[in-house]
Fold this protein.
Amino acid sequence: MSDLQLSLLVIGAVVIAGVYLYNWVQERGLQRRMQQAFGESHDDVLLKAGVESVLADGRLEPQLLPQEPAREAAARVGSGAGGTAVAHGGEFDPTLDFAAEIDADSPISDAVVSELMSKIASCGKPVHVAGYDLRSEAWEDVVRGRGGRYARLRVALQLVNRAGVVNPAQLAAFSDAVRACADKIPAPVACPDTQAALKNARELDAFCADVDVAVGVNVIAKDGATIPGPAIRAAAEAAGFKLGPDGVFHYRNDRRQTLFTLDNHEPAPFLPESIKGLTTGGITLLLDVPRVADGAEVLDRMIAIAGSLAAALGGRLVDDNRAVLSEAGIARIKDQVRSIHAAMAGRGIPAGSARAQRLFS
């Protein structure tokens, strides 16, 4: 074999490896975006509540034909933050938060407060510290560097979110940090029972897994063509979407809450700096069911906008089986969304509420 032939073989191998690596990176990027949006997938147990046709990846898929088996759809990004609710001041949610209270006789030093905040920040779950300001005689969010003015602290750890339920080690680390802070002051501390908190958190997490679903519809280019990124951006913005730094278009209400999103049907995100040179075979509109109030009405709006986008981009409005959506299929999905929202309301977690925003984030 000549040197030229050997060089060509090496170059060819490098090119093939590069293509493989690029595709792998794109797939990993899509997986990360889905994990950030929905966390780990859970088994479907919604049939117990009479809700049908929920896919194993937590996505409701509109079907043209009821008897047609639905395949597991490729996961795509759910709705963005859009004002994720968090605990504030001295107010905590006993359903979501494991909250302890330190009650000192005199102002707690900034060094002690800062040490406490550093320790609990590594517990692996959202945490929050509120202090009772002796000057204003009111509870407020504690900020580093503003110690020496609080004689009481309320310290909370969120027990459940889309990343899962708190584990015993995390809860023990949090409790130990709070007690160590109280010992250093010294001051009495009131801390809830950890075993009861873990039991309640696991039950809540199981319920959340049941209702954590999304509804997606697709606009696909006709006859194997592609849609240019600039055309997608123009049509999306004309419809009311705003492109976020996460590479996803968000359709928000007047309170800046995301109602539904528009994402690439293919792995590459719609990043602001690269969308001009991007082409794709389609787009996906996604409704994050537990984070949106009035889900059936919002679904109507999303499908109407998807239809207008299909017309503007010369595409077809289809489900993940590439079957054209029917009124009957859409009505069936709306009934399922209503059932999920009713189950959430019955559990004291109205869809789209501050509590739901915290749980499903």
In short: Confidence is low (pLDDT under 50) at residues 19-57, 63-86. The chain has two domains: 30-83+212-359, 97-158+163-205. The CA atoms of residues 274 and 316 lie 25 Å apart.
